[in-house]
Amino acid sequence: MGISVEGANKSFGDFQALDDVSIEVPDGSLTALLGPSGSGKSTLLRAIAGLEDLDSGHVLIDGQDVSKKPTQKREVGFVFQHYAAFKHMTVFENVGFGLKIRKWDKAKITARVHELLDLVQLPGLADRYPSQLSGGQRQRMALARALAVEPQVLLLDEPFGALDAKVRKDLRTWLRRLHEEMHVTTIFVTHDQEEAMDVAGQLVVMNDGRVEQSGTADELYEQPANEFVMSFVGEVNRLGDAFVRPHDMEVVLDADERTEQGLVQRIVALGFEIRVEFVLADGTEVWAQLTRNELQRLELREGQIAYLRPAQAKSFNGSSPSQDPGASTPRGLEDEGDVGKPAAV
Amino acid sequence: MSSASARGHVGRGTVSRWSLRILGLGFLALLLAAPLVIIFFETFKDGISAPLDAITSENGMHALKLSLLMVAIAVPLNTVFGVVCAILLVRHKWKGNAVIDSVINLPFALSPIVIGLALYLLYSTNGGWFGPTLAGMGLEVLFSVPGMVLASIFVSLPFVVRETVPVLQEIGTEQEQAASTLGADAWQTFRRVTLPAIRWGVAYGVVLTTARVLGEFGAVTIVSGSISGETETLPIFVQKQFDAFNEPGAYGASLLLALLALMTLLAMNLLKRKEDA
Lengths: 345, 277
Known about the structure:
The structure holds two protein chains of two kinds.
Chain A (H helix, E strand, L loop, with lengths): L2 E10 L2 E11 L4 E5 L6 H9 L6 E6 L2 E2 L10 E4 L11 H11 L4 H14 L15 H14 L4 E5 L7 H18 L2 E6 L2 H7 L2 E6 L2 E6 L1 H6 L4 H6 L4 E3 L2 E3 L4 E4 L7 E11 L2 E8 L4 E7 H7 L6 E6 L3 E2 L30
Parallel strand pairs in A: 3-8, 3-9, 6-7, 7-8
Antiparallel strand pairs in A: 1-2, 1-4, 4-5, 9-10, 11-12, 12-18, 13-17, 14-15, 14-17, 15-16
Helix pairs in contact in A: 2-3, 2-4, 3-4
Chain B lengths: L1 H42 L5 H8 L1 H34 L5 H8 L1 H4 L2 H12 L7 H6 L8 H12 L1 H14 L2 H8 L4 H30 L2 H7 L9 H10 L3 H30 L1
């Protein structure tokens, strides 16, 4: 079941949480709503579930306008950041809640609940109370509860936000596999770009209540529509008007007309990857991502002078980006390749 | 050295803990237990027959029944009102909430006598606002059960609201939202999710309401007219026995009142224990 949102507006007092937002989520996809806090991503998700009423605009599930339908009739599965477990019910009762509401008979509920507990790898915990589970277990229980009623769509609001790093990584791998098995259209909200790229096939980047860009992880990384997407999806350095990815920062020891002089301030080894931090003559701080081999070849030391050359840069100069005469720019917005000499030092 | 000083430290902790305990228990004993114990002894000083006779007298039994009737009407009404009101205050943001919130506390702030007089002014057949109209419809409020029920409801109104509001705030709205995404309508969500989550707050409010209704004297005295065998509740009965120098009767009825209140507390604790087990 595909989901689309058309021209959604929502404000809380003076704060415009959604500003004319339209998105299209294909049937069976796993889509991430990515953005900083306050960008409107959770509000959008809650509006799809009917937990938030839109001021204007429409939500369509499987082509049907559900904007006026109350939450309980939208057949959405929703998973909350803080689990929203029913504390006075056992794991069994939590997972079976939606089935009981739908007046399934007892034997069928029992069978279905156990099937789901196996699916989320919580067999044997049916009689526990949520307070006796770890955070990761609670979230898997919440997911089983949402899936029990076979929702048309699954909505997850920062589902791993309250978990520690290790559990988080395990769960997102597991969520991706689960989605491959179940193929239920899934939207999940996150502020973590790595998590979004790891789990989702499609990403929608939001900022200030608007959609900045949507596409696959590759598209967003390689062809960001604007400055915000470029700096939010992946790391970026700013050199004058140009944006350069740290791995596109070439470090050389001899100056030429395209290099810029920098002082090596700090060298941080992160395993195979090395982060070298520079201060330019005008005080700008930038960093380059090198491999261990490159670092050894250059014999860089903290406190020495080296030269930086952007191998690839982009600039977003309003509506008329500077064009590289040689390169074809498919989307017309970005300027790939040569940016010439960066602003004078 | 270090172990000795550690022991010394523990010793000081124990001493201060015990002195705090003695202080607390002493306070309770002097102010709460002593009066109750004295009533117990005074009641049975000259044997069991005098207090028993007073309680089992026609007026005594009527007073007991009337007090229980007050509880049976006022407590359920205030419980339903209290829960609904708490939900409105916490879950439905509205500008008037602050006003409602302070108005609900009025019965706590006003002396029961004032409440009794206010009701008297409203329902008096002789120039009250509502009294003459209601009397015309054949409903006598003052000096009869309806007026006493009104007074009981008024004085015990805030308990359930006050005990439920903080629990509702504490549980938050996510569980309720989760229930609605799982297909539960508003009533199912309330019955299966909200109510079980707030039940001990409500129960505590019910116990306090019951105790207050049982013990109410000031407001009920004014509106009831204290007619023996007709509009006399247990506390009024106690006062009348005391005025008539029938001290064993007064103490006996007092003891009965105290027992009833204790039983409601006990009932709640038993229910809670059963559930926790």
